[in-house]
C-alpha cells in the first residue's frame, strides 16, 4: 500500500513521557516519546473517537479522556475497553533533527485486533456465552484474541446483533445516532471469526453438573447445531444482564406503559410519542432521568415521579443531585418527589397516572425506570446472592466449575475494599467480559477493573469512577453551578469514588491513579494544591 510521510516534529519537541497530536497529510497521529524512542499510533479512541492527546500518558499507555479506554502507545493495542478495536501503528524514523512518520495513503486510524481462526481439529471444545451485551461481545472477541480456536456460541434473546446499549437513552434517543450506526460489529465480522450469534433464543435452564443448556423452544436446537432442545458446553459465561423491574399496580397492562432496556423499547417509544404530548417517567434512576431529558428534547411535557427527595442522592450526594434537578427544571421537566404511582387509568391506552397523594397526571406515555433484576432464574447449581439473586463469583469471575459470570448479574469482590459488590455499568461489563474470556481460555487473570459510568443530561455531562456505597465526606474541587468540578467521595480517609464534569483530562488521570492505588491523600485534596495530571507515574503530560 502506498505510504505518505511527513516531518511531524523535531527530536527536541518531546521529552520522555510526553505526547502530541500531529498530522501526516490528512491523517491525524498521536506521537509519543517513551524511553528515548518515538512512537506513532492513531490519534483517536476507537470507542467514540475522542482525541487521545487530551488524555494522559502513563508509563507505556494512554488513557482516553472520555470513557477511559487504555491503549499501548508503542503497539496500538487496546488494554482496557470500552472500545473494541486497536489503534493503527505507524512507522517512525529519525533523520537528523527530524521525526518522520509514514502512514498508509488510506487509513482509518484503527484496526481489528489479531484473532485466532476457528479450527475444530485443533480445539474441539465449545464455549458458550449467554448474553450479547457489553460483557458477551467483549468476551467473544477476547477468546479469539487469547488464541482460543474452538467453537464460540453467543446466545441472546434480542432480535438484533450486539449494539451499543448506552446510546439508547442518549444519542440514538435524540437522533444524533442512526440505527445503522448502532451495531458494534457487522454480520461479516462474526462470520469471519466464526462467532455464532443466535438471536431470539430463550434459555429455560442451565444444568451445571451436566454442562447443558435447555432452550424454551425446540427450534433453537437446529439453529444452534445441537441435538434435541439442548446445547452442551465445555465452558460457559453467563452475561444475561438485568430485566427491568415492573410496577405491579392496577392498569399496568395498558398500552404505552413501557420500560427502556432494548433497541426495540427505544424504537417503540420514539414511534409512540407526539410533540407537545404528556410523558410521565417513573423513577429518578439514570435511565429514567436520561429518558426524561430525551423526551423533553422531543418537545414533550415531562413529569418525573420519584420516591426520593433528590435525584441520585444515594449515588452522588444531595448537592450534585440537586444540580441535576436544577438542570432538568431549567429545561422544562417537572418533578413529583417523595411520591409513588398507585394506579394507571385509560381506555386501552394509558391516559392518567394516579399518585399516592391523590394527584392525577395526564399521560400519553409512561416510562418505568425503577431498576433492574438480574436474569439468573434459569441457573442450577450456582450460588446466588440472597439479596438480589446475582451470581456470586470469585476474583477470577468464576462461579462454579467451568462457569463464569460478568456484567450486571455478577456479585464480585472489589479489589480495593475486599467487599462484594455488583455494578450495573456498561464499561464494567466490558472489562469483566474480557477477563472472564482470558480465564476461560486458560489464563489465570484476576479482575481488578475500576467501575466507570457516564451520563449526559441536556448539556450536563458527568463521569463517575470507582464505587462508594457510602461516604464520610465529599471534597469538591471546582464550581458545581458552572458544572466544572471534581467531587471526591471519601470514606475512612480513602477516596473510593470520584465524580467529574467538564474535567476530561483530570478524569483520565484519576482513572490511572486509582488503578495504581496512588490517589492523593485526603489532606492533599483538601488543600486544593494537588495536580492530578502531573502526578502520573513517569509522565509529564502536555496537551
Q: What's the level 1 CATH class of the largest domain?
A: Alpha Beta
Query: Which strand order spans the largest sheet, edge to edge or round the barrel?
Result: 1-11-10-4-3-2
**What is the CATH homologous superfamily assignment of the largest domain?**
FAD/NAD(P)-binding domain
Helix content bin: 10-25%
Entry keywords:
single chain, 543 residues, alpha/beta, Rieske Iron-sulfur Protein, FAD/NAD(P)-binding domain, 4 domains, six-stranded antiparallel beta sheet, 18% helix
Task: Describe it.
By secondary structure, this protein is of the alpha/beta class. It has 4 domains: 3-111, Rieske [2Fe-2S] iron-sulphur domain (Rieske Iron-sulfur Protein), CATH 2.102.10; 126-242 and 374-440, FAD/NAD(P)-binding domain (3-Layer(bba) Sandwich); 257-370, FAD/NAD(P)-binding domain, CATH 3.50.50.60; 468-527, 2-Layer Sandwich (Enolase-like, domain 1). The protein contains 10 helices and 40 strands. The strands form 10 sheets. It has a 6-stranded antiparallel beta sheet, with no helix packed on it. Strand 3 (27-34) and strand 4 form a beta hairpin. Helix 1 (134-145) packs parallel to helix 8. The chain is globular, with a radius of gyration of 24 Å. The protein starts with a strand and ends in a 16-residue tail after the last helix. Mean pLDDT is 94; it is low at 218-228 and 539-543.
Note the topology.
Elements: E1 3-10, E2 18-24, E3 27-34, E4 37-42, E5 56-58, E6 61-63, E7 70-72, E8 78-80, E9 86-87, E10 89-95, E11 98-104, E12 110-111, E13 126-130, H1 134-145, E14 151-155, H2 187-192, E15 195-198, E16 203-207, E17 212-215, H3 219-224, E18 230-232, E19 235-238, E20 242-244, E21 257-258, H4 263-272, E22 278-282, H5 286-297, E23 301-306, H6 313-316, H7 318-330, E24 334-337, E25 341-345, E26 352-355, E27 360-362, E28 365-368, E29 372-374, E30 379-380, E31 391-392, E32 398-400, E33 403-405, E34 410-413, E35 420-421, H8 426-440, E36 452-457, E37 460-466, E38 473-479, E39 484-491, E40 494-501, H9 504-515, H10 522-527
Amino acid at each position: 500500500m502506498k505510504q505518505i510521510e511527513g516531518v511531524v516534529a523535531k527530536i527536541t519537541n518531546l521529552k520522555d513521557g510526553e505526547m502530541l497530536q500531529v498530522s501526516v497529510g490528512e491523517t491525524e497521529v498521536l506521537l509519543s516519546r517513551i524511553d528515548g524512542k518515538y512512537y506513532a499510533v492513531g490519534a483517536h479512541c476507537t470507542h467514540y473517537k475522542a482525541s487521545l492527546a487530551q488524555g494522559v500518558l502513563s508509563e507505556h499507555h494512554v488513557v482516553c479522556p472520555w470513557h477511559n479506554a487504555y491503549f499501548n502507545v508503542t503497539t496500538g493495542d487496546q488494554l482496557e475497553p470500552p472500545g473494541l478495536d486497536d489503534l493503527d501503528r505507524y512507522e517512525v524514523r529519525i533523520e537528523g533533527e527530524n521525526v518522520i512518520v509514514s502512514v498508509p495513503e488510506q487509513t482509518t486510524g484503527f484496526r481489528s485486533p489479531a484473532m485466532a481462526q476457528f479450527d475444530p481439529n485443533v480445539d474441539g471444545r465449545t464455549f458458550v456465552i449467554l448474553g450479547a451485551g457489553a460483557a458477551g461481545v467483549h468476551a467473544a472477541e477476547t477468546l479469539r484474541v487469547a488464541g482460543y480456536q474452538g467453537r464460540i456460541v453467543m446466545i441472546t434473546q434480542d432480535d438484533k446483533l450486539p449494539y451499543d446499549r448506552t446510546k439508547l437513552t442518549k444519542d440514538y434517543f435524540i437522533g444524533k445516532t442512526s440505527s445503522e450506526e448502532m451495531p458494534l460489529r457487522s454480520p461479516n465480522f462474526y462470520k469471519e471469526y466464526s462467532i455464532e450469534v443466535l438471536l431470539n433464543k430463550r434459555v429455560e435452564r442451565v444444568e451445571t453438573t451436566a454442562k447443558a443448556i435447555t432452550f424454551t423452544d425446540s427450534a433453537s436446537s437446529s439453529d444452534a447445531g445441537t441435538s434435541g432442545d439442548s446445547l452442551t458446553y465445555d465452558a460457559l459465561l453467563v452475561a444475561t444482564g438485568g430485566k427491568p423491574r415492573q410496577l405491579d399496580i392496577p392498569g399496568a397492562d395498558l398500552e404505552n406503559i413501557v420500560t427502556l432496556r432494548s433497541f426495540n423499547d427505544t424504537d417503540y417509544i420514539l414511534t409512540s410519542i407526539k410533540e407537545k404530548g404528556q410523558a410521565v417517567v417513573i423513577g429518578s434512576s439514570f435511565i429514567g432521568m436520561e429518558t426524561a431529558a430525551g423526551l423533553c428534547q422531543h418537545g414533550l411535557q415531562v413529569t418525573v415521579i420519584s420516591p426520593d427527595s433528590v435525584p441520585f442522592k444515594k449515588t452522588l450526594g444531595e448537592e450534585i443531585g440537586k444540580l441535576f434537578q436544577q438542570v432538568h427544571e431549567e429545561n422544562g421537566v417537572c418533578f413529583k418527589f417523595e411520591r409513588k404511582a398507585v394506579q394507571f387509568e385509560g381506555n386501552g391506552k394509558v391516559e392518567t397516572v394516579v399518585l399516592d397523594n391523590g394527584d392525577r397526571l395526564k399521560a400519553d406515555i409512561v416510562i418505568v425506570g425503577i431498576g433492574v433484576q438480574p436474569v439468573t432464574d434459569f441457573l442450577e447449581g450456582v450460588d446466588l446472592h440472597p439479596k438480589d439473586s446475582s451470581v456470586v463469583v470469585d476474583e477470577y469471575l468464576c462461579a462454579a466449575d467451568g462457569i463464569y459470570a460478568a456484567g450486571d448479574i455478577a456479585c464480585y469482590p472489589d479489589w480495593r475494599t475486599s467487599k462484594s459488590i455488583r455494578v450495573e455499568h456498561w464499561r464494567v461489563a466490558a472489562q469483566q467480559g474480557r477477563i472472564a474470556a482470558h480465564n476461560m481460555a486458560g489464563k489465570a487473570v484476576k479482575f481488578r477493573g475500576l467501575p466507570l459510568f457516564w451520563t449526559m443530561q441536556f448539556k450536563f455531562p458527568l463521569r463517575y469512577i470507582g464505587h462508594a456505597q457510602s461516604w464520610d465526606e465529599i471534597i469538591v474541587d471546582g464550581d458545581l453551578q458552572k458544572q466544572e468540578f471534581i467531587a471526591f467521595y471519601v470514606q475512612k480517609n480513602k477516596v473510593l469514588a470520584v465524580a467529574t464534569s467538564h474535567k476530561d483530562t483530570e478524569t483520565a488521570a484519576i482513572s490511572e491513579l486509582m488503578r495504581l492505588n496512588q490517589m492523593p491523600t485526603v489532606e492533599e485534596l483538601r488543600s486544593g494544591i494537588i495536580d492530578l495530571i502531573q502526578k502520573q507515574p513517569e509522565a509529564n503530560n502536555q496537551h
